Amino acid sequence: MGNRFRSRAVAASMGLMLVSGLVALGPVAVAAEGASNTSAAATTAQDVRDVDWYNATFTVSEVGGCPPATVTFTDGAGETEDRVYRFAPGAEIVYGDVIGSGRESALLILQCGPRNSEYSTAVVGVDVSEDGVISGLGTVGNKDSWEIVPVDVAIWHGDVAVRFEDFGTGQFTNEYYRFSPREGFVRI
């Protein structure tokens, strides 16, 4: 019961942060990281919630200094020639309509880095078409430092709120994003 209350309280507070940020910041767009990519991978899933993301192959947009790559995940981890990709431990997948299609997309908190190093962490948007094709929507709030990580994500009327923690300073910041078909996720 305590976790259910906490989840609702976190969702409500992220919604309030998003609304207050939208009012305070207005529609100022910043170039998004990671334009849309369509993965060659198709799934039998007809809905984004039907995909076993921890055991799927899809294009991951830029995460920190890791370039976009098609990654096959097994039990939440995957590798390319020189990079390790994994789902951030304990992070939940967030679902919502971020592209205005009336269908849900997924926001995944992923980590990436060279083997035996610190990993950068970013929120990656993905979608599944009605015919089961997985496509990348881009990266939400990509940071170049492994010390600044997304710790919470919420979707409010299609906009995305991300709460970041800076491990170097112990400070938290909130950023807000909106999806643009041409630019991916742009900061608002």
Q: N-to-C terminal Cα separation, in Å? A: 35 Å
Number of domains as seen in the coordinates: 1
Helix percentage range? 10-25%
Mean pLDDT: 81
- Unreliable spans: 1-40
Count of alpha and pi helical runs:
1
Q: What is the strand tally?
A: 13
Characterization of this structure:
The protein has one domain. It is mostly beta strands and 188 residues long. The radius of gyration is 16 Å and the shape is globular. The strands form 3 sheets. Strands 1, 4, 5, 6, 7, 8 and 9 form a 7-stranded antiparallel β-sheet that branches. Strands 10-11-12-13 form a 4-stranded antiparallel β-sheet, covered by helices on one side. 13% of the residues lie in helices and 43% in strands. Strand 12 (172-180) and strand 13 form a beta hairpin. It contains 1 helix and 13 strands. Keywords: Signal. Residues 1-31 form the signal peptide.
Which terms would index this structure?
mainly beta, seven-stranded antiparallel sheet, four-stranded antiparallel sheet, 1 helix, signal
What's the short version?
Helices cover 13% and strands 43% of the residues. It is built from 1 helix and 13 strands, in the order αβββββββββββββ. Keywords: Signal.
SSE layout and pairing:
Blueprint: H1 2-25, E1 37-42, E2 57-60, E3 69-72, E4 77-79, E5 84-87, E6 94-96, E7 105-113, E8 120-128, E9 133-140, E10 148-156, E11 159-166, E12 172-180, E13 184-187
Antiparallel strand pairs: 1-9, 2-3, 4-5, 5-7, 6-7, 7-8, 8-9, 10-11, 11-12, 12-13
Signal peptide: 1-31
Keywords: Signal
